[in-house]
Amino acid sequence: MQIQSATFETSSPDFETCPESDLQEFAFIGRSNVGKSSLINSLTNKKDLAVVSNTPGRTKLINFFLINNKWSLVDLPGYGYAKAAKSDRDKFNEFVSNYLVERENLSCVFALIDSRHKPQKLDLEFISWLLDYKIPFVIVFTKSDKSSKGAVEKNIELFTEALSEFCTGLPRMFTTSSKKGLGRKEILNFIGEAIASRT
């Protein structure tokens, strides 16, 4: 798939105000500072489409981007933002979970995992939650350029082992580097195939 156009559509502070749409949506989510905004900008070939910040938890709204006038990329708030007040975290969790469970045109969730780290409890709990609610998802390992190839492969292996303890049949997995463009073509082809299968 080639990205011809990518434009910001709207932001929603809660599930109730999400825009009505018949377009397929592909949502991106991960722990704070996982490199989500950088990945979105890399995928769309627009360096400032999603705001990249050094402050974890910058995304506090559900952001919708219209791609090729054919599908929507949805940027969800990161989970596990320690500096937010507990009431705010609970509110984030509630409206994000409402979107993931109730959004009828959501085609797939891209669960972002930082490849620099060994399996994190919060990531595994989130994927277990996706499985419990039967929400379609794939896993995207980010920041692969930040560590040696061997270290990245080891962390992915450890994550896969942890996942296999509660997941029957492993999901599709992608390894990415926003800086080097690694994984971009594979993810866009996956989205293109998903769209084609629904038309």
Describe the secondary structure blueprint for this structure:
Blueprint: E1 6-12, E2 24-30, H1 36-44, E3 62-67, E4 71-75, H2 86-102, E5 106-114, H3 121-132, E6 137-142, H4 149-164, E7 173-175, H5 184-198
Parallel strand pairs: 2-4, 2-5, 5-6, 6-7
Antiparallel strand pairs: 1-3, 3-4
List the main descriptive attributes of the protein structure presented here.
single chain, 199 residues, alpha/beta, Rossmann fold, seven-stranded mixed beta sheet, 5 helices, 35% helix, 22% strand
Q: Per CATH, what is the topology?
A: Rossmann fold
Low-confidence stretches: 81-85
The main sheet comes to: 7 strands, mixed
Q: What is the CATH first-level class name?
A: Alpha Beta
CATH superfamily: P-loop containing nucleotide triphosphate hydrolases
Tell me the total number of β-strands: 7
SSE string, helices as H and strands as E: EEHEEHEHEHEH
Q: How many H/I helices?
A: 5
Helicity level, as a percent range?
25-40%
C-alpha Rg, in Å? 16 Å
Tell me, briefly, the overall form. Answer: globular
CATH architecture: 3-Layer(aba) Sandwich
Strand order of the main beta sheet, please?
1-3-4-2-5-6-7
Number of domains: 1
